[in-house]
Amino acid sequence: MTDRIPHVVFLCVHNAGRSQMALGFLRHLAGDRAEAWSGGSEPASSVNPVAVAAMAEVGIDIAGAQPQRWTEDGLRRADVVVTMGCGDTCPFIPGVRYEDWPLDDPAGQGIEAVRPIRDEVERHVRALMDDLGL
Fold this sequence. Notes:
Elements: E1 7-12, H1 18-30, E2 35-40, H2 49-57, H3 72-77, E3 80-83, E4 97-100, H4 111-132
Parallel strand pairs: 1-2, 1-3, 3-4
């Protein structure tokens, strides 16, 4: 990495659960030491309310987030693109570092099932931050 602030993009299909939780953790933990954005291939109409509740339990508010589609421009600016279950629908930009995090999808799950997903997302985000020197 250079002295420039790293830009991280989190991608999943609906941009309503995993990628929103990852974005929330990175923004909360890294503050202004990183830029972050998230997107999906088929954005949902709203963030998963159970993911919102699970994140609120750890003091992170993602209630105001809005699922959105990724953009080529946003991906080209990224230093790291993290994919979570979007498979072949995730775009590939040459020269950008990619990581795939094999996480369960919180869609349709209750809070008891989403808490371990949230905790795994946090572990991955912290490991990424360590790797980026944040």
